[in-house]
Amino acid sequence: MPPTDAEILAAPKVLLHDHLDGGLRPATVLELAAEIGHELPAADEQSLRLWFTDAADSGSLERYLTTFEHTVAVMQTPDALVRVAAECAEDLAADGVVYAEVRYAPEQHLNGSLSLDEVVAAVEQGFRLGETRAAAAGRPIRVATLLTAMRHAARSREIAELAVRYREAGVVGFDIAGAEAGFPPTRHLDAFEYLRRENAHFTIHAGEAFGLPSIWEALQWCGADRLGHGVRIIDDVEVRPDGTVKLGRLAAYVRDKRIPLELCPSSNIQTGAAGSIAEHPIGLLARLRFRVTVNTDNRLMSGTSMSREFALLADAFGYDLPDFEWFTVNALKSAFIPFDQRLALINDVVKPGYAALGAQRAFDRVRAAGTAERLSPRSA
């Protein structure tokens, strides 16, 4: 029995890979742009929404990244950052997300004379506000943040130090992002070595547009805890004519070490990493029991949500509630919060949530069978 839309929406979800500047509400972009006189490519909410998704559907990571020029432009003041972060938390909670790690690059929000510390403070204030509003609406969520350094820039050590400085105030990790080709992770080795000395967590965008060398560097040179996307690990997986599978040494290492893959199906299609949801490597990687997680990446650019990603996977691979629970537990096992907090979310929120959905489904099935029996001619 395929999951219903209502079941998918109600299912507890955990999100590890979501960009703050990739998840704005179109209405918010319009309002903030009007306040600062920023020219947008569309003048109404629906047209702007379509522009973002169409522009992102280029099949090129580089072209995809140009859409952020407009969202970043309207996120240059404390008020704007607070608003965007608060709305992000509310939107995720309304979609059934119970824990999220949202990432952003503080260095991209300095055009309005803010300091790096002021950017972080505003974003954290916004997320606390959003959490409060979500709890009041009956959809509690916890949002942690990852600070991202842009891989084409030279501020990664500075941003890494910023992440460590705020790790008691909501920041749980570090990341590098941006175009992979020509900007390997090893350019930022100083930042990663610093983070390891500070016992800090970090993920690295790798294996999205670039292939296995990017993944190898992220893991073996830089020591990444997780792989941002990592979808190209499939290039090291051979499916033989008889259906058997042989893992290359890097793929075997990733699976054996339980290195989490922050897969983003819809986004991966837009950037050319996969041809369709049905062709996405997530199906094979999940079957081979890699540490697969499901993520949104950029909800505005992909026109997506966690519920939509789950629904697409259900249609393509026949996934049901137990599969979504597995993805969700995988994500919590891989989160950058302390072990006891991860365990509490798994045992007190995720497992009870899926158990309740299963019990409701069983009850509905029994009730439907009873109704059918009463309507049967034999029961007359």
Instruction: List SSEs in N-to-C order.
Output: HEHHHHHEHEHEHEHEEEHEHHEHHHH
What average pLDDT do the residues reach?
95
Uncertain segments of ≥5 residues (pLDDT<50)?
Answer: none
CATH class: Alpha Beta
The number of distinct helices, counting runs of at least 4 residues, comes to 17
Question: How many domains would you count in the coordinates?
Answer: 1
Q: What is the CATH architecture descriptor?
A: Alpha-Beta Barrel
Major beta sheet, strand line-up: 1-2-3-4
Which outline best applies?
globular
Strands, total number: 10
- What is the terminal-to-terminal distance? 30 Å
Mind telling me the C-alpha Rg? 21 Å
SSE class = alpha/beta
Could you state the CATH homologous superfamily?
Answer: Metal-dependent hydrolases
CATH topology: TIM Barrel
| Share of residues in helices | 40-55%
Biggest beta sheet summary: 4 strands, parallel
Strand percent estimate: 5-15%
Cofactor: Zn(2+)
Domain Adenosine deaminase: 12-351
GO molecular function: 2'-deoxyadenosine deaminase activity; adenosine deaminase activity; zinc ion binding
Binding site for Zn(2+): 17, 19, 205, 297
